[in-house]
Write a structure and sequence with these properties.
Largest interface: A-B, 88 and 85 residues
Largest sheet of chain B: 2 strands, antiparallel
Number of domains of chain A: 1
Shape of chain B: globular
Distance between the termini of chain B: 19 Å
CATH superfamily of chain B: MetI-like
CATH topology of chain A: MetI-like fold
Helix content of chain B: over 70%
Oligomer: heterodimer
Number of strands of chain B: 2
CATH architecture of chain B: Orthogonal Bundle
Structural class of chain A: mainly alpha
CATH class of chain B: Mainly Alpha
Strand order of the largest sheet of chain B: 1-2
Order of helices and strands of chain B: HEEHHHHHHHHHHH
Radius of gyration of chain A: 23 Å
CATH topology of chain B: MetI-like fold
Order of helices and strands of chain A: HHHHHHHHHHHHH
Largest sheet of chain A: none
Chain lengths: 267, 282
């Protein structure tokens, strides 16, 4: 087995070499980032001294970074939940009811996907300005629902087949009320799609920068706080924050992999 | 009996649709109106005119921002495809199925790090006291620090890093969907492996390449972060020019006009790619 594996590896040497080269390219900046987050000096540049946890201590005692972290989590959870809720309702309405002009409705719902975040953020900034609505985290949440609702809708809508419709009809025939059909039949059947859209929306909101920069002011999200850290140039603190964000994202991706795809496999 | 019900649908579709109209469609319309205003002497004048657009296409520093953006995006897309295609191919056909999922996840792991932090990480590698400068000095290639940051090449490198991962994903997804029967048939009919690739696999994988290329172009054209962190101030890309109008000049009418130009450019690209972008429904 092992020998066979080695022989095939030798045959595939050029391919393996290419893959390793690209992996090095892909992981180089991340590796440098994490390594120098343990730097025991004032600059995150060679030579490496350490390891030291002083910069992690520095960020976990920095109330601005911790506030931003809390804000980011709050914005991501609320906007992802809202996107999934609105996306689910719209998908259910379009899949199960006759709606005049459903083509236009669908087109409008996914239209924000084809517009740059910068432009969506600019539009919101100018709109809030004209209406004298102050910059705030609420404005960020509004913007993040705009960008994530189309994705949530598209994912959930694509999973609403005839198969579920038949089960829903059966439940109705057996006397279930409309809300019972929704809560007891449709939601459990769509659980994987809902989870996938929630995690995707959460990740995109968690990392979104330009809309958050444009429409927030005093309370900011983590990417915006990191952006202002960048003004001080190369800084091991930025390395430490970046590494923490990286770890959080990786954990999320693996949770999603296990929860969403693990379920599908076990079916 | 596939009865879609007649009444009540708007109750479900309504909230999401209203949200999109109120916070997406209406702001775009307000922006379009703003782009026809002017900012004169610190005040917004609401007489309608096309002077912002005229200024954009006649003043070289505005137009150059657009040209720079298009050039950087084109170079980025080509290099990313060249890097990503072989990787996706090897992952799809050479890696044993047991390892495929984990190998793919590894290939796109840094995709999930913060976008801002990823550009900053390249700064650590490229700056004059950074990793590469130290390595080439240690090797004796050069004897004084070299800075690779703050240049167009640095922007392209930062972009290529991100979009190679994205393209690997779309191309891989396309390659594994190609039925192996086509390749078997080609082999039975006497085609060499190279011929099979050129005549069968490559043409069938074009949709994956095109979808990835489209996403790359749209995201790169609209990105402010990577050029702002890795580029210098000698040349700016269009999103930077737009942000300068907002942050330095507070010239919202001009920024609106430039944003709409960007939107039109992206729409044209969408039309060019539309034959590959048909969304399949299950």
């Amino acid at each position: 087995m092992v020998k066979q594996y080695l022989v095939s590896m030798w045959k595939n040497a050029p391919a393996v070499f290419y893959v390793l080269l690209v992996y090095v390219f892909i992981f180089l900046p991340v590796a440098v980032l994490v390594l120098f987050s343990f730097q025991d000096a004032l600059l995150p540049i060679p030579p490496f001294q350490g390891p030291s946890l002083r910069w992690y201590e520095a960020i976990f005692t920095d109330f601005r970074i911790m506030d931003a972290l809390g804000n980011s989590l709050m914005v991501a959870v609320v906007s992802a939940a809202l996107s999934c809720f609105l996306g689910f309702l719209a998908a259910y309405g379009l899949a199960r009811y006759t709606i005049r002009g459903s083509g236009v409705v669908q087109w409008l719902l996914v239209a924000p996907l084809s517009v740059s975040y910068l432009i969506i953020g600019m539009g919101l900034l100018i709109t809030f300005k004209t209406m004298a609505i102050p910059k705030s985290l609420l404005a960020v949440i509004i913007g993040h629902v705009v960008i994530n609702l189309p994705l949530a809708f598209a994912i959930i809508y694509s999973q609403m087949g005839e198969h579920q419709a038949n089960i829903e009809r059966a439940a109705r025939d057996l006397g279930a009320a409309e809300w019972q059909v929704l809560v007891l039949i449709t939601l459990p059947l769509l659980w994987p799609a809902l989870l996938a859209s929630f995690f995707l929306s959460f990740t995109l909101s968690w990392d979104e920068f330009i809309i958050a920069l444009l429409v927030s002011r005093f309370d900011v999200t983590l990417p915006v706080e990191i952006w202002s850290l960048l003004r001080s140039g190369l800084n091991p603190k930025t390395n430490a924050v970046g590494s923490v964000v990286f770890i959080v994202s990786i954990v999320l991706v693996f949770v999603m992999e296990i929860v969403v795809f693990g379920r599908r496999k076990s079916k | 009996m596939r009865a879609k019900r007649k009444l009540g649908g708007w109750g479900f579709v309504g909230p999401g649709l209203l949200w999109t109209i109120a916070f997406f469609a209406v702001p775009l319309l307000i922006m379009a109106a703003y782009s026809l205003f002017q900012r004169i002497g610190g005040r917004i004048v609401t007489d309608l005119s096309l002077s912002n657009y005229l200024a954009f296409f006649t003043k070289p520093h505005h137009l150059n921002a657009l040209i720079n953006s298009l050039e950087v995006t084109l170079i980025t897309t080509i290099i990313s495809i060249i890097l990503a295609y072989p990787l996706a191919y090897i992952l799809a056909f050479r890696v044993p199925p047991r390892w495929q999922r984990i190998a793919l996840m590894m290939a796109i792991l840094p995709f999930w790090t913060s976008y801002v932090v990823r550009s900053y990480s390249w700064l650590l590698v490229l700056s004059s006291n950074g990793v590469i400068s130290n390595i080439v000095q240690w090797l004796g290639v050069v004897d004084s620090p070299i800075s690779l940051a703050n240049s167009r090449a640095a922007i392209v490198l930062g972009f290529v890093h991100f979009f190679t991962m994205l393209l690997t994903l779309t191309i891989f997804a396309n390659l594994v969907q190609i039925s192996p029967n086509y390749k078997k048939a080609a082999a039975d009919l006497g085609a060499s492996r190279l011929q099979t690739f050129w005549r069968i696999t490559l043409p069938l994988s074009i949709p994956g390449v095109m979808v990835g290329a489209f996403l790359t172009i749209v995201l790169a054209l609209g990105d402010y972060i990577t050029p702002q962190i890795l580029g210098g101030f000698r040349e700016v890309l269009l999103p930077q020019a737009i942000m300068l109008q907002i942050q330095r000049q507070a010239n919202f009418p001009m920024a609106s006009a430039m944003s709409l130009v960007l939107m039109v450019v992206i729409s044209i690209i969408f039309l060019l790619f539309s034959r590959w972008l048909k969304i399949e429904r299950m």
